[in-house]
Amino acid sequence: MNWVEQEANKDVLLKDTLLLMLEEIKLLRQLLLKTERALRKLMKERHNEKATLLMTAPGIGRTIAMQFVLEVGDIKRFHSFDALNDLIGFCPDTDSSGDMQRDRGITSRRHKQLRSALIEAAWTAIRIDPALMDAYQKLTKRMQGKYAIIRIARKLLRRMRTMLLTGQPYQIGVAA
Prior knowledge:
Elements: H1 2-10, H2 15-45, H3 48-54, H4 62-72, H5 81-88, E1 92-97, E2 100-106, H6 112-128, H7 130-140, H8 145-166
Antiparallel strand pairs: 1-2
């Protein structure tokens, strides 16, 4: 950032624009820091047990754990895994008309941030958990990696639900 500021001072034509952009970046960083502090405070005060339990899973950090806890709320309100899966959006979607029926992959109706976060967590989880890596490798034999990781993210979601229901931490290397 200092280098960009020095370069901006050298160029008269771009100086104002670059300095305004740098100021915006600095303000956004401050806002992000403020948000992270509020998130930590909320985690300590209200949802510490649930978030700490979720953070035992590979790929699940403080931000994803709190996002999951705050967005999903009480896990017991979902009577089954399928109900939770419908909220996140890992369920399949079909397009049917008359006699014709086409599979369209996963549904476009989803919780965009949670689904994206869980897919990113799944990429980390397969590097840490050998059971998930084994499942991923089996899936990649019959489909592309980007589709296989969605199945792994779904497994991770199932495990997160089980962790919250039972109160047991994640066990690495245990096949589901």
